[in-house]
Amino acid sequence: MNPRREPRGGRSALFDGIEEGGIRAASSYSHEINEHENERALEGLQDRVILLKRLSGDINEEVDTHNRMLDRMGNDMDSSRGFLSGTMDRFKTVFETKSSRRMLTLVASFVGLFLVIYYLTR
């Protein structure tokens, strides 16, 4: 009989120990590769977690800074509102009298003339 045409059962019986040993070795090697890949992936994830933690801390600091700035701006706006309402009250009292309106018109004309002369001489 031709050795290449051996029945399948005879061939498997001939290589039983070698194939199983080879499979075990390949399986062990594959397991080591998987563990190594898992360790590298774990290190990569740890680096990403650390980066995200730093980034979230930076975002938190930035948000706190902006909140403090907005609080200061709100306080400044409140004080400006009080100042402007006082100024508007004064304007109302000035406009209530006719002589005050004439004086305001004269002052506004003078300021306007001054600005025109200033910009023409520049």
Poorly predicted runs of 5 or more residues: 17-23
Number of strands: 0
Classify the secondary structure makeup into a structural class: mainly alpha
What is the CA–CA distance across the termini? 116 Å
Strand content: under 5%
Protein name: t-SNARE coiled-coil homology domain-containing protein
Keywords: Coiled coil, Endoplasmic reticulum, ER-Golgi transport, Golgi apparatus, Membrane, Protein transport, Transmembrane, Transmembrane helix, Transport
Function: Required for vesicular transport from the ER to the Golgi complex. Functions as a SNARE associated with ER-derived vesicles.
GO biological process, one term: protein transport
Question: How would you portray this structure in words?
Answer:
The protein has two helices and no strands. It is mainly alpha-helical and 122 residues long. It is rod-shaped. The protein starts with 7 loop residues before the first helix and ends with a helix.
Layout of helices and strands:
Elements: H1 8-96, H2 98-121
Family: Belongs to the BET1 family.
Function: Required for vesicular transport from the ER to the Golgi complex. Functions as a SNARE associated with ER-derived vesicles.
Protein name: t-SNARE coiled-coil homology domain-containing protein
